[in-house]
Amino acid sequence: MSEQSKLKPGLDPRFLGTWRLASVDREDAATGQALDVGVKSDGYISYQPDGHMSVVISREEPGKPVGITCYAAKWSLDGDKVYHDISISARPQWVGTRQVRHFTFHGDMLTLRPPESPDVVHGKVTRRALHWRKVV
User: What is the DSSP letter of 91?
Assistant: First the structure.
């Protein structure tokens, strides 16, 4: 049985599989100033046909400890939004929350954009785009 034939109703087959983080754009929402110059990010995100997903991202900034974001969740769609209903996370405050990401596809790339929000790293409201390249 193919992965697509196991796809939970309401999910988009383009999400299925594993994606590697290609780049992250982060900017000050008020000024548009690019942030994170010199920061190295890497990671994987995986979407399964049964409606489960997981993600791990590392963030290396010169002179600081490596930061890790990781969680597992159920995923669902509504228009151009993908929802991650988090069941386990390295950030305990995220457990039980719904993370919203606007999405677009371009060839073998998936871009996820969280809503503008206060950024704990920079202490200001930021706009982010995470660009993922299809692996499998």
Answer: S
On the question of pLDDT at 1 being above 60, the answer is no
pTM score of the predicted model: 0.90
Looking at every residue in the chain, the average pLDDT score rounds to 93
* Ramachandran area for residue 88 (φ above 0: left; ψ -120 to 50: alpha; else beta): beta
Cβ atoms of 59 and 90 closer than 8 Å: no
| Lookup result for tokens 């383009």 | 14
Q: What are residue 67's phi and psi, to 5 degrees? A: -100, 140
Residue 51: which of 98, 101, 15, 100 has the closest Cα? 15
Please give the DSSP secondary-structure letter assigned to residue 135: -
CA atoms within 13 A on the CB side of 94: 15
Contact indicator for 76, 86 with CB cutoff of 8 Å: no
Q: Where are the domains of the chain?
A: 4-134
pLDDT of amino acid 2: 56
Phi-psi bin for 135: left (phi > 0), alpha (psi -120 to 50), beta?
alpha
Report the topology of domain 4-134.
Lipocalin (2.40.128)
Residue at token pair 């950024």: 119
